[in-house]
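Quick one from the shared queue. A colleague (R.T.) flagged Endoribonuclease YbeY as missing a structural entry in our internal table.

Convert sequence to structure tokens.
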Amino acid sequence: MSSPEGSSVTFRRAPATLRRPAIERFARRLQKEVADGAPFDTLITGDAELRRLNRDFRKKDYATDVLSFPSGGPGLGDLAISLGRARAQAREFGHTIEQEISILMLHGVLHLLGHDHEVDRGRMASLEKRWRAKLGLPTGLIERVQS
């Protein structure tokens, strides 16, 4: 549930080298610029927890990189991001783990705003690409799948 003062990031599993303040600042920036001020909360955790959440809520028994849980009330909702998936994808695509977490967070926020790239004929992909460029992020999730 989103905190009253704004978006928050909880690091359940994170190495000491992870630049937490940068990720927290990015969450606040997303809240302000992309979500029109609506707060959301992000949990950064391990593959096992993402697998459990994916299985419990989507009936898909595998770890995924990001899950979105709309709130239906005040605030946008919650995101869960796999640190393991983020680390692997950052390595694969040649950028930092903080950039990958930011890409995943943007993708998740767009889902919280009601966009669904699986059915919207490219609308979410277009939004993600536009926001990614504006926010200075490397290639986004949808673009990777489409290329």
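The first strand starts at residue 8 and ends at 11.
Helices lie at 20-33, 47-58, 83-93, 97-112, 123-135, 141-146.
Added to the table.
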